[in-house]
Amino acid sequence: MQSTDHLAASRYARMRWNTPLSQEHAALLLQRLDVRPGARVLDLGCGWGELLLRAVAAGGVSGPVATRGVGVDTDDAALARGRRLAVGRSLNRHVAFVMGEAAAWQEPADRVLCIGSARAFGGTDAALDALARVVRPGGRLLFGEAYWERPPTPAVEQTFGAEVTDLPGLVEAARERGWRMLHLSTADQREWDDFESTWLVGRQEWLLSYPEDPRAADVRAELDDRLREYVDGYRGVLGLAYLVLGR
Description:
alpha/beta; seven-stranded mixed β-sheet
């Protein structure tokens, strides 16, 4: 049995979105984002754009004024998946997926999503400054960013970067840059465990199906290292905050 095509496809196969987020939590965030009919929605670092598609659908695509969205990412395969999802939901006329650098995007939008992509801008502070230029006056930003729930070990801090702060520091960074907090919530432990499990499980299933593949030993080692790193290192230490911000 050939496994060549299956390994690449398995990487994100079991993931709904590439962030620790339940469907119920996502629905809450979209409610707080308050996408209006006719709004323009922008997702920077969109991946395959699951949350973007839901945001556009929430705003409404029927009637005289349709909501439209743009997702920007550098991952070809993820963008292709997003386009397939858009076609499957009859949203392909309303959502475009664009290959590009998040930090280079300049066209403003009414609602902007940027989850886990602050590094593309050079860090949290730089991202909050740059995103202010693409959120239209009166608009809203859904900003997802990591923070320390507990002090990390030196090894964990090195993995995620010394610029990661605690939750009060993250909130203060947004305030200092003129943003007003409209909503704050954090990923809980079940969301984190599900995220880490689904990040691994596609390739775990591939290993079970193709144990004799020449790449199996390397894939097994990578997955085992990631699981150890999570369970022994940053589980309960690294958090993820979702901030809905306005200005």
